[in-house]
Design brief:
Layout: E1 6-10, H1 19-26, E2 40-45, E3 57-59, E4 62-73, H2 76-94, H3 100-114, E5 119-130, E6 135-139, H4 143-157
Antiparallel strand pairs: 1-6, 2-4, 3-4, 4-5, 5-6
Helix pairs in contact: 2-3
Length: about 160
């Protein structure tokens, strides 16, 4: 594994957690797969994959972390087509045009019925902490992706 896109940040306060303390705090935000009605999930996984046993990997005073995000993919065109069919059927049956709020409620209903059958897309983002240099480095191509990982780290360590 090589880092490709580095986003480098400094800690505002010294990072004084030990690896064991960090491990126990990360467990509270460990990754769990999406349920049938979840649109996305985000949490920590083992940075060494199936070869690892912990949510952190430390060597020479450096710490490696890995965050995983799972998102359900619902194509907008599928939702639009199903909504159009349902709206047409209801309007024909009731003999009136549906209001905007009624259409939005139908759209939500359609999304909830399609979510269990939606495909999942997963992505992983690695982070490296150097407590001696007071640095945290995120391997992310965009600032938003890096901010998501840092927000999860802040949430985990409080």
């Amino acid at each position: 594994m090589w880092f490709k896109n580095l986003q480098i940040y400094r800690f505002t306060r010294p990072f004084d957690l030990t690896v064991d303390q960090l491990e126990t705090q990360l467990e509270a935000c460990a990754f769990t797969p999406c349920g049938s009605q979840d649109i996305s999930r985000f949490g920590w996984v083992k940075p060494l994959g199936k070869f690892g046993s912990t949510l952190t990997h430390s060597a020479s005073g450096h710490i490696l972390l890995c965050a995983r995000k799972e998102e359900k993919m619902l194509p907008g065109t599928v939702v639009k087509e199903m909504l159009a069919e349902k709206v047409e059927a209801i309007e024909f049956e009731q003999g009136r045009a549906l209001k905007k709020k009624e259409k939005e409620a139908l759209k939500e209903e359609i999304m909830h019925t399609l979510l269990p059958r939606a495909f999942s897309r997963t992505s992983q983002t690695f982070a490296w902490i150097s407590p001696a240099d007071n640095l945290r480095v995120v391997d992310a191509g965009s600032a938003k992706k890096a901010d998501d990982v840092l927000a999860l780290l802040r949430k985990s360590i409080g």
